[in-house]
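Appendix B, example 12.
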Amino acid sequence: MLQGLILVLAAALLGSGFVAGKVLLRSVPPIALVGWRFVAAAVVVGAIAAAVDRSGWRVPVLRVALIGLLQTATVMSLLYTGMRVLPAGTSAVLLFTNPLWVAVMAAAVLGERLSRSAVAGLLAGVAGVVAVLGGVRGSAHVADDAAVLGAAVAWAAATVLTTRLPAGVSAWWVSAGQMAVGGVVLIVVSLVVRQRFPVDLSAADWGWFGWLTVAGTAGGFGLWLVGLRMGGATRSSVYLFLVPLFAAVASVLLLGESFSWVQALGGAGVLVALALVAARPVVVEQTE
């Protein structure tokens, strides 16, 4: 129950980050935005880690760096590469096939065998996400589709890698470390491609950046890792289906975008998916 509540809150915060990011992209280049977003969030999460876990920085450094390269640097760079051409809705649908890739990897690496209800739930979740985002139209941009799918696969790999961390490793320190690594890499990339973060943003835009950093990134990704470390890669990842649902609702409330009855049905499909996967998500194979 506690794990579910944490992951629902994480999904809500991550969904709000899509709205903040959409507003900021009007005035901030994408790679510069995500780079500074994660570096700033790493400072916030590091402060939280120092407050809640006084044992200090005791994590496998190389593995956390790899998680940062996958979950932050690779996911964000591939996502925004595809979003240069693809509609935002199409990109989000492709990215949030993540739980399917997690299920496949968890079965292969962690020995998690999917139950029939879990398979049905995952498929219902994908259908629900598509409906929430208003459906996906055909795309002739195969390379861009592949880039965003690559982001989904990279996130799935980072998820499985996170569940393999030793017991007792602080999720907050892991989150701070991976954000710092990924953010620094993205800032270097932004400098190479000559993207500059403007310091003359309006007060409103700085407010959006503050929300994106503290709530949408530090809170969202931090709580996501806390929930994930509580166990079950497949069961945890299905909650990511809620992210585009929360993003759609926030867009209606904050940006005045419309929300159709088809999207409402999609939201119901997401809730059905969560119920199915939470019922009997996986069976972990035991080896003698």
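The chain has one domain: 2-280. The CA atoms of residues 92 and 244 lie 7 Å apart.
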